[in-house]
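Hey, can you fold this one?
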Amino acid sequence: MAEKKQVPLRLSEQLYSAIAAWAEDDFRSVNGQIEYLLTECVKHRKKRNKGSGGTGPSDPHDPC
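Sure. Predicted structure:
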């Protein structure tokens, strides 16, 4: 397994609580949930960009 990078991350209390609740529902740690969400977002973005000929996102404010 590839070594993972450590990244300090600051979250608002409200966002942390929402992610923590979601993580608990999915039987993941908060760290695992954040990694899962980021991975899914990157996959989604790659698929979307592949369909647009690689010209980039259609909405620059779309987080994924």
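The mean pLDDT is 88. Let me know if you want another pass with a different chain boundary.
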